[in-house]
C-alpha cells in the first residue's frame, strides 16, 4: 500500500486508533516526519499533541545505518547486531552520540513551544511516519514511559515486521497499516515524502494544528532491480509526465534507503520534469563493511551499470542523464563520470569524499558541481586540496552553517535549488523529446 502524503497516512492511521476515542490520550509525534501524521491522529482523537525528541545513532562511516538511538531524559538504545557486524568501536560510537546529543538538545529548545504535556497516568500514543529498523521508535517509547505514561501505544502507517517484534519490548500496543516484508526505505511508501521543516513542526504544535496541503503532480513510481555481476542493485524510479532528463542518485548503502533529505531533493527535480533513480550500490552485508563502503572502484562500476540501465529504458533512450552522489556515493559518481563509455551529462556531489575518487579526477568530463557545508571542515579541506586535479567545467558552492549531511531544512532547500539549477542548465537544455 502507498500513501499520497503524510496527512493522508495520518487520517488512515487515526481510523485504526478509533478505539482510543474518549480515553485520556496524549499524541506524541516524532519530529520531524511524524508530526504531520500526528496532527491528523490528534485531531481525530480530540487529543493534545506534543513531540517526543529522539535521534538515530548512525555508523560513523555509514550515517544512514542505525546502530542505535538516543532520546530525552538520557534514553539510549543500541543495536548489538549492527555493532558486532560493523566493528564500530566504543570511541567511535561515543563521538557519534556526542554529536547527536547536541542536535537533540537543539531540537528540544526549538520544538518546546510550550511546557511538555503531562503524561503521568495517561495513554501515550507515539506516532512516526514509518519505521524500518525500530531503534528510534523504541527510544521514543522508552522516553514516554519514563515520563510516567500508564500505557504506551506506538502507531505508524508503515512498519517492518522485525521492528514490530522489537517494539513489543517497549510498547503495550503497536498499530500499523502496512507491514511489508522488506522495508529498506520508508519513503518508498509515500508519493510525497518531502522534508518537513522546523517551522512546520512549530506551526503544528501551535493551535490550531494545521498542515498546508502539498502540491500534487502526476509522478509514476516503481521499484527496480539492476543486475550487476552476481548482485542485484535495488532502486526506486520516479518518472514525471513528459520527462526531459534523468538523474541517478547514488549512495554507498543497501537498497534504495535514501533519507527524507535526499528524497526531498529528488522530488524537486521531479517537479522540474526530471526523472530520478534512487539507488543504493551495496548489499546488506556490504554496507556494514568499511572496505566496501569506501571502495570507489566497486561503487563506480555498479553506478555505471545503473546509469546505463536508466538510459536504456524504452521510453527514455534519448534523454540526457546526470548523477547526484552523496558522501561516498559522490566518489562513485566521479569514478563513473571518468568512464567515457558512460556518457553522463552532469554531476552533483553533496559533501562528497573526493579522496576516494582521487585516481580518476583528471579524467572526469561532465560539468560537476560540488556542494559542501561550511561546518564540514574535512570536506572543505579535501576540496581545496583535490579540486585542482579536475579538468572539467566545475564549481564549488559552500552552504553556510551546514554540516556534511545538510540536515537543516534551510540548508536542504539551498541544496535542492542548486541541484535543480545545475541539472536544468546542463541536462534539460540539450534534452530531446522521448520516443
Kindly describe this structure:
The chain is α/β, with parallel strands linked by helices. The chain has 13 helices and 16 strands. The strands form 3 sheets. Strands 9-10-12-11-13-14-15-16 form an 8-stranded mixed sheet, with helices on both faces. Strands 2-1-6-7-8 form a 5-stranded parallel sheet, sandwiched between helices. Helix 8 (260-271) links the parallel strand 11 (245-254) and strand 12 (274-282). Helix 8 (260-271) packs across helix 13 (409-426) and helix 10 packs across helix 11. The chain is globular.
Mean pLDDT: 88
Distance between the terminal alpha carbons, to the nearest Å?
Answer: 31 Å
Morphology call: globular
Note the main sheet.
Answer: 8 strands, mixed
Helices and strands, with pairings:
Elements: H1 6-16, E1 25-29, H2 34-45, E2 49-51, E3 54-59, E4 62-71, E5 75-78, H3 80-86, H4 90-111, E6 123-127, H5 135-146, E7 151-158, H6 161-167, E8 173-178, H7 198-205, E9 219-228, E10 231-240, E11 245-254, H8 260-271, E12 274-282, H9 290-293, H10 296-312, E13 321-326, H11 328-337, E14 346-350, E15 368-373, H12 377-386, E16 394-399, H13 409-426
Helix pairs in contact: 1-2, 8-13, 10-11
Write a concise keyword list for the protein shown above:
435 residues, alpha/beta, 8-stranded mixed beta sheet, 5-stranded parallel beta sheet, 16 strands, globular, disordered C terminus
Task: Offer a quick outline of the entry.
With 435 residues, this protein is an alpha/beta fold. It contains 13 helices and 16 strands. An 8-stranded mixed β-sheet has the order 9-10-12-11-13-14-15-16, with helices on both faces.
Amino acid at each position: 500500500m502507498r500513501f499520497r502524503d503524510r496527512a493522508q497516512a495520518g487520517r488512515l492511521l487515526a481510523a485504526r486508533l478509533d478505539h482510543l476515542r474518549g480515553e485520556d490520550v496524549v499524541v506524541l509525534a516524532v519530529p520531524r516526519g511524524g508530526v504531520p501524521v500526528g496532527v491528523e491522529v490528534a485531531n481525530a482523537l480530540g487529543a493534545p499533541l506534543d513531540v517526543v525528541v529522539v535521534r538515530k545513532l548512525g555508523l560513523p562511516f555509514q550515517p544512514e545505518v542505525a546502530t542505535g538511538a538516543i532520546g530525552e531524559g538520557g534514553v539510549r538504545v543500541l543495536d548489538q547486531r549492527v555493532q558486532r557486524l560493523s566493528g564500530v568501536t566504543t570511541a567511535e560510537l561515543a563521538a557519534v552520540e556526542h554529536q547527536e546529543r547536541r542536535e537533540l538538545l537543539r531540537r528540544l529548545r526549538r520544538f518546546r513551544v510550550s511546557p511538555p504535556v503531562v503524561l503521568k497516568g495517561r495513554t501515550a500514543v507515539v506516532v512516526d511516519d514509518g519505521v524500518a529498523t525500530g531503534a528510534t521508535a523504541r527510544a521514543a517509547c522508552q522516553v514516554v514511559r519514563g515520563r510516567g505514561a500508564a500505557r504506551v501505544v506506538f502507531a505508524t502507517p508503515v512498519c517492518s515486521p522485525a521492528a514490530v517484534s522489537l517494539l513489543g519490548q517497549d510498547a503495550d500496543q503497536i498499530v500499523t497499516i502496512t507491514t511489508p516484508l522488506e522495508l529498506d526505505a520508508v519513503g518508498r511508501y509515500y508519493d510525497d515524502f518531502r522534508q518537513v521543516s522546523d517551522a512546520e513542526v512549530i506551526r503544528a504544535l501551535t493551535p490550531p494544528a494545521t498542515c498546508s496541503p502539498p502540491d500534487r503532480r502526476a509522478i509514476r513510481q516503481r521499484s527496480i532491480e539492476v543486475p550487476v555481476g552476481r548482485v542485484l542493485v535495488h532502486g526506486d524510479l520516479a518518472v514525471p509526465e513528459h520527462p526531459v532528463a534523468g538523474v541517478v542518485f547514488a549512495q554507498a548503502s543497501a537498497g534504495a534507503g535514501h533519507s527524507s533529505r535526499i528524497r526531498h531533493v529528488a522530488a524537486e527535480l521531479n517537479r522540474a520534469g526530471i526523472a530520478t533513480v534512487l539507488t543504493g550500490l551495496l548489499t546488506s552485508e556490504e554496507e556494514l563493511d568499511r572496505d566496501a563502503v569506501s571502495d570507489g572502484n566497486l561503487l563506480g562500476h555498479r553506478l555505471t551499470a545503473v546509469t546505463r540501465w536508466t538510459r536504456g529504458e524504452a521510453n527514455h533512450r534519448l534523454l540526457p542523464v546526470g548523477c547526484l552522489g552523496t558522501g561516498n556515493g559522490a566518489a562513485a559518481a566521479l569514478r563513473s563520470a571518468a568512464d567515457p563509455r558512460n556518457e553522463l551529462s552532469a554531476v552533483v556531489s553533496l559533501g562528497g569524499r573526493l579522496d576516494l575518487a582521487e585516481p580518476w579526477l583528471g579524467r572526469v568530463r561532465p560539468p560537476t558541481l560540488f556542494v559542501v557545508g561550511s561546518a564540514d571542515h574535512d570536506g572543505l579541506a579535501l576540496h581545496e586540496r583535490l579540486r585542482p586535479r579536475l579538468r572539467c567545467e566545475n564549481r564549488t558552492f559552500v552552504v553556510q552553517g551546514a554540516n556534511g549531511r545538510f540536515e537543516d531544512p534551510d540548508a536542504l532547500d539551498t541544496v535542492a535549488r542548486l541541484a535543480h539549477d545545475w541539472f536544468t542548465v546542463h541536462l534539460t537544455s540539450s534534452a530531446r523529446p522521448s520516443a
